[in-house]
């Protein structure tokens, strides 16, 4: 007779594992509720500042129907209605390789209304990329026509970063100036 059939020896997870699973579920639910509350607030007259710290990495489940699946290996396989629709783009490429940076640039170009810097006219692209310092040269090549430069803003992560990161943008603002200017 199988041990599971007699009902006495049902396998159970250790208490510490159950506690960790419960903590994870609570954190996930809290983050989802936090995002939902902020979204409702922002739909009104929200003038506060948002931070990425409050959200998990599972954007498909936090964002629901507004999420668009993206595959880095197929950077142009996006809905046609998104092509040339955006004049403000922020990207955070997942890898520091030339291949990843190039594919991200293809996607940015696809999504952009314009491939020229804004220059204060509000007609061009305002672009920000937070990525590794070591890919600065390829960023300059890929986004050079948009006027991108390294800024004084230094991205930080609540859990720390193992690489030197930089913020590249094609405009200055109150949060940063051009690095070395």
UniProtKB/TrEMBL annotation:
GO terms for biological process: methylation. GO terms for cellular component: cytoplasm. It is found in: Cytoplasm. It comes from the Eukaryota. GO terms for molecular function: nucleic acid binding; protein-lysine N-methyltransferase activity. InterPro entries: DNA_methylase_N6_adenine_CS, Efm5/EEF1AKMT1, Mlase_EEF1AKMT1/ZCCHC4. Keywords: Cytoplasm, Methyltransferase, Transferase. This is Protein-lysine N-methyltransferase efm5.
């Amino acid at each position: 007779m199988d041990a599971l059939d007699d009902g006495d020896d049902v396998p159970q997870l250790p208490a510490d594992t159950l506690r960790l699973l419960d903590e994870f579920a609570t954190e996930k639910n809290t983050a989802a509720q936090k995002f939902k509350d902020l979204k409702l607030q922002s739909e009104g007259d929200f003038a506060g500042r948002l931070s990425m710290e409050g959200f998990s990495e599972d954007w498909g489940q936090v964002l629901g129907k507004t999420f668009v699946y993206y595959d880095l290996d197929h950077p142009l396989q996006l809905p046609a209605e998104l092509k040339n629709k955006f004049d403000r783009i922020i990207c955070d490429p997942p890898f520091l390789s030339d291949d990843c940076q190039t594919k991200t640039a293809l996607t940015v170009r696809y999504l952009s209304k314009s491939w020229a810097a804004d220059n204060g006219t509000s007609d061009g692209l305002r672009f920000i990329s937070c990525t590794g310092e070591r890919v600065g040269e390829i960023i300059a090549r890929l986004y050079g026509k948009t006027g991108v430069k390294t800024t004084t803003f230094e991205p930080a992560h609540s859990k720390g970063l193992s690489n030197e990161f930089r913020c590249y943008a094609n405009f200055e603002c109150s949060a940063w100036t051009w690095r070395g200017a």
